[in-house]
């Protein structure tokens, strides 16, 4: 097969494997050393810091051209401490981190390229990695291998392989991270390459191709999280989505987000409010407990325009649908507060209510068992819903004996609830 054919097939496969995504991966590029720290000094007089910055800038341009969201640590000849580089990177919530360096060895014969990454199979007692980075091992290694392969192919340097390493910038972050040692400034041949603008461009292109060939893990911020499997199952069913490539599992769920998720799970347009007087449902409204009220003392006025929910708000349509089902009530001050968080007790009541609307009336509802949570007495307004959902295996306590009904529910917890419901 000729190369063109191979490339055509490859490009077809890549298109197939990575269909259009609505967000750009964010890459942090780090030019090693800088300012008062020159790094290695070349056999030809080159300063490593200058080589690193030039290759990194070329790499940034290549990635930006392909639609990546690229952020650099230092962008000029300036000193940045290692901790500064990592702190800056951690604050960016990026998808991957690549540090660019040139190497040096006491033997001028040593030449070639290598890629360093933190590997939890080779921990170094004196240089412990961050907890998150330990979990990133397979992803960092995968990135390192892709970058090494394409760097070698593009630059023609000697293959010195992957190196499990405890270098600071590769072990202290929270995302897949690598450190590329492009070539040796202490070797005549390699140093000549590093001095050559065309060769440096080839190196940048090589690193870029490796990044492009690598697929970052979905929702990097859920790696190691107890709900990751449930979150991924719900994502694969298009029931939940992230913010870019992050899910923000510990963030409080908002009322608008909750309704959006519930509409996906239960399809509001197929449901009827059994408590509506205009609804000629064959089921007695009493079955559903139409005295339903949420924890606020607000009254619901069906034809009111909420003053904090203009028609242009993204969640306006979902609140209109929810209004038809008499799901969420407005507040006495005329607001509906779409961005306010929602508590575990409120979610339980609403989820249980939707469950009743979605199920046939003939289906026997389990008898709620009281009380097993110390903080959910039978007299609590949400107790019946909480114990019913617990009995159905849809919701869990925060511990054996507590439920924390007044605590806001997290995005991880709602994904887990949806997953448990969906798997039944
Ligand atoms: Zn260096």
From TrEMBL:
<dbReference type="Pfam" id="PF00395">
    <property type="entry name" value="SLH"/>
</dbReference>
<feature type="signal peptide">
    <location>
        <begin position="1"/>
        <end position="22"/>
    </location>
</feature>
<feature type="domain" description="SLH">
    <location>
        <begin position="369"/>
        <end position="424"/>
    </location>
</feature>
<feature type="domain" description="SLH">
    <location>
        <begin position="214"/>
        <end position="276"/>
    </location>
</feature>
<dbReference type="Pfam" id="PF01520">
    <property type="entry name" value="Amidase_3"/>
</dbReference>
<feature type="domain" description="SLH">
    <location>
        <begin position="302"/>
        <end position="365"/>
    </location>
</feature>
<keyword id="KW-0732">Signal</keyword>
<dbReference type="GO" id="GO:0008745">
    <property type="term" value="F:N-acetylmuramoyl-L-alanine amidase activity"/>
</dbReference>
<dbReference type="InterPro" id="IPR001119">
    <property type="entry name" value="SLH_dom"/>
</dbReference>
<dbReference type="GO" id="GO:0009253">
    <property type="term" value="P:peptidoglycan catabolic process"/>
</dbReference>
<keyword id="KW-0378">Hydrolase</keyword>
<dbReference type="InterPro" id="IPR002508">
    <property type="entry name" value="MurNAc-LAA_cat"/>
</dbReference>
<dbReference type="InterPro" id="IPR050695">
    <property type="entry name" value="N-acetylmuramoyl_amidase_3"/>
</dbReference>
<protein>
    <submittedName>
        <fullName>N-acetylmuramoyl-L-alanine amidase</fullName>
    </submittedName>
</protein>
<dbReference type="GO" id="GO:0030288">
    <property type="term" value="C:outer membrane-bounded periplasmic space"/>
</dbReference>
């Amino acid at each position: 097969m000729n190369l063109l054919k191979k490339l055509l097939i490859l490009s077809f496969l890549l298109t197939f494997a990575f269909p259009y995504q609505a967000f750009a991966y964010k890459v942090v590029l780090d030019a090693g050393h800088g300012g008062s720290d020159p790094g290695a000094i070349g056999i030809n007089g080159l300063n490593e810091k200058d080589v690193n910055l030039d290759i990194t800038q070329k790499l940034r341009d290549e990635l930006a051209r392909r639609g990546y969201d690229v952020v650099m640590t230092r962008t000029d000849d300036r000193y940045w401490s290692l901790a500064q580089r990592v702190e800056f990177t951690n604050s960016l919530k990026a998808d991957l981190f690549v540090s660019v360096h040139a190497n040096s060895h006491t033997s001028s014969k040593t030449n070639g390229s290598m890629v360093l990454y933190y590997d939890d199979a080779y921990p170094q007692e004196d240089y412990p990695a961050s907890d998150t980075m330990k979990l990133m091992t397979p992803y960092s290694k995968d990135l390192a291998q892709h970058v090494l392969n394409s760097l070698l192919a593009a630059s023609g340097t000697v293959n010195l392989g992957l190196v499990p390493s405890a270098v600071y910038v590769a072990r202290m972050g929270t995302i897949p991270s690598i450190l590329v040692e492009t070539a040796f400034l202490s070797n005549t041949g390699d140093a000549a390459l590093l001095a050559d603008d065309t060769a440096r461009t080839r190196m940048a292109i090589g690193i870029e191709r490796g990044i492009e060939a690598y697929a970052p893990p979905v929702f990097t911020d859920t790696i190691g999280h107890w709900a990751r499997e449930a979150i991924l199952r719900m994502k694969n069913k298009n029931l939940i989505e992230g913010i870019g490539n992050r899910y923000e599992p510990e963030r409080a769920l908002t009322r608008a987000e909750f309704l959006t998720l519930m509409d996906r799970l239960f399809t509001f347009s197929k449901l009827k409010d059994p408590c509506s007087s205009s609804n000629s449902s064959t089921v007695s409204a009493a079955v559903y407990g139409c005295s339903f009220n949420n924890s606020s003392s607000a009254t619901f006025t069906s034809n009111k325009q909420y003053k904090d929910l203009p028609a242009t708000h993204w969640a306006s349509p979902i609140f209109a649908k929810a209004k038809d089902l008499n799901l969420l009530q407005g507040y006495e001050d005329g607001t509906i507060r779409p961005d306010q968080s929602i508590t575990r007790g409120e979610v339980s009541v609403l989820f249980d209510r939707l469950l009743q609307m979605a199920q046939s009336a003939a289906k026997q509802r389990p008898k709620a068992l009281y009380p097993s949570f110390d903080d959910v007495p039978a007299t609590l307004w949400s107790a019946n819903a909480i114990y019913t959902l617990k009995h159905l295996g849809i919701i869990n306590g925060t511990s054996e004996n507590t439920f924390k009904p007044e605590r806001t529910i997290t995005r991880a917890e709602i994904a887990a609830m949806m997953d448990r419901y969906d798997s039944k």
